[in-house]
């Protein structure tokens, strides 16, 4: 039956278009629901194709956009019930994801979205520049005036709603066989000393000879970070770095952590110069980051 089919396919697809009564669909998928951030989109269509109803995962799962696409194909009408869409406001969760912003915690997105819907606007203080903001978001000059703060820092009062921009690049040099726990301890120390959130880390960067370094790969995978690798020739073209005789002798690169961070961030300014631990070195750079009004719909079905 429908319930068994949906149970078998639920994790195999990004979205489902169900041509049947909404009640049948609700009963079939109810036991499968987990989290709106990971559940697939579900769109229900009547048998005449007049209405395409976005039933589940309208924003993050792309259900609203899928409903619009189905309605356009069938010559029908998309039925969207998410509050921000009905009120003509920006879907805050989609905008944040489009801008590479990460909520400070799970409750932050819900609280910020509720403020936007209930008040019709959201006052925004950002530590990064904004070329434009979407409808409903209003820039303010001081954080104490804001409903929502965009910042890489963690030293905000506990009740402050914060989105972290993924703007930090971590340059990494390491000895062969460095374990995950040493990468984790070093980066935790660096970020905590500067009141920076790990949620603001965009990626790691290193020498291409470290592609098969198990500890580095596993550490990045735990956090969902990409590791960008550069050749020694690319690293050696970066000016103004701290030269490491040990790295030069072992790899032919004048340095690893600092030039890798600068190259990946596409900047010439280090946020933190190289720091050393027994088996690794770290450097930090801040990638150029500008907010826009762009909202990318999530629909890959």
Uncertain spans:
none
Question: Percent range for helical residues?
Answer: 25-40%
Which series of helices and strands comes N to C? HEHEEHEHHEHEEEEEHEHEHHHEE
Give the helix/strand class.
alpha/beta
Basic shape = globular
Strand order of the largest sheet: 5-9-8-6-7
Q: Mean pLDDT score, rounded?
A: 92
The Cα radius of gyration reads: 23 Å
Number of distinct beta strands: 14
According to CATH, the fold-level topology of the largest domain is Nucleotidyltransferase, domain 5
CATH class of the largest domain: Alpha Beta
The DSSP helix count reads: 11
The CATH superfamily title of the largest domain: CobE/GbiG C-terminal domain
Structure description:
The protein is an alpha/beta fold and 301 residues long. The protein folds into three domains: 2-81, Rossmann fold (3-Layer(aba) Sandwich); 92-165, 3-Layer(aba) Sandwich (Udp-n-acetylmuramoylalanyl-d-glutamate--2,6- Diaminopimelate Ligase, Chain: A, domain 1); 168-286, CobE/GbiG C-terminal domain (Nucleotidyltransferase, domain 5). 33% of the residues lie in helices and 23% in strands. The chain has helices at 2-9, 22-29, 63-74, 83-86, 92-98, 106-119, 180-193, 214-223, 232-236, 245-251, 257-265; strands at residues 15-19, 41-45, 51-56, 77-79, 101-103, 122-126, 137-139, 148-150, 162-165, 168-174, 201-207, 226-230, 270-276, 280-286. The strands form three sheets. Strands 5-9-8-6-7 form a five-stranded mixed sheet. The protein has a five-stranded mixed sheet with strand order 12-11-10-14-13, sandwiched between helices. The chain has a four-stranded mixed sheet with strand order 1-2-3-4. Helix 1 (2-9) crosses helix 2 (22-29) and helix 7 packs across helix 8 (214-223). It is globular.
């Amino acid at each position: 039956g429908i319930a068994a089919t949906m149970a078998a396919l639920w994790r195999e697809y990004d979205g489902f278009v169900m041509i049947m009564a909404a009640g049948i669909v609700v009963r079939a998928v109810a036991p499968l629901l987990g989290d709106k951030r990971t559940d697939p989109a579900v769109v229900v269509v009547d048998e005449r194709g007049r209405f395409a109803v976005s039933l589940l995962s309208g924003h993050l799962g792309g259900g609203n956009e899928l409903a619009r696409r189905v309605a356009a194909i069938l010559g029908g009408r998309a039925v969207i019930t998410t509050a921000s869409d009905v009120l003509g406001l920006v879907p805050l969760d989609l905008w944040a994801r489009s801008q590479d912003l990460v909520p400070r915690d799970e409750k932050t997105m819900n609280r910020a979205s509720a403020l936007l819907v209930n008040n019709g606007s959201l006052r925004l203080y950002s530590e990064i520049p904004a070329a434009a903001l979407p409808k409903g978001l209003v820039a303010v000059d001081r954080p104490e005036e804001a409903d929502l703060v965009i910042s890489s820092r963690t030293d905000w009062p506990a009740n402050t709603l914060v989105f972290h921009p993924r703007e930090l690049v971590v340059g990494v040099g390491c000895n062969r066989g460095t374990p995950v726990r040493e990468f984790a301890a070093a980066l935790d120390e660096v970020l905590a000393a500067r009141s920076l959130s790990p949620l603001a880390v965009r990626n790691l960067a290193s020498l291409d000879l470290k592609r098969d370094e198990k500890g580095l790969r596993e550490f990045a995978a735990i956090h969902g970070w990409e590791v960008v690798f550069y050749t020694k020739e690319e690293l050696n073209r970066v000016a103004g770095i701290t030269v490491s005789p040990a790295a030069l002798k072992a790899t032919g690169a004048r340095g690893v952590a600092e030039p890798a961070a600068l190259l990946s961030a596409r900047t010439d300014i280090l946020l933190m110069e190289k720091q050393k631990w027994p088996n690794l070195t770290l450097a930090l750079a801040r990638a150029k980051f500008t907010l826009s009004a762009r909202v990318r719909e999530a629909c890959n079905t």
